[in-house]
Predict the structure.
Amino acid sequence: MFIRIDNQSSDPIYFQIAEAFKREIARGGLQADEALPSIRNLAKDLRISVITTKRAYEELEKEGYIYTVAGKGCFVSPRNEELVREERLKEMESHLARAARLAQLCGLTKEECKEALELFWEEE
């Protein structure tokens, strides 16, 4: 799994890491009970502090995406469909927000956008 850190982002690095794992879990790239990289190895690979990586993993665990086994490491939690749905919804909202801003810049009306969305929906 490749995690890209954006140093120009206003989002903290631990948050970017956690979001990358959430996306990967939601899309099925990480399976239930699959081991995550160790905190130290991930920190080394990303060239960041172990503390930052630890915080990302703590957030993921607190939100139910992963669990920790003492002496073994961190693992992906069994698939929680509600968490996966929520993550997908969040990603879709982000894309729609960008599309809405672009539509406004292009001078499109809300009705034109709705029509375009309905056309895309029907194509699927």
About this structure: The chain has two domains: 13-76, 81-123. The mean pLDDT is 91. Residues 81-105 form the longest helix (25 residues).
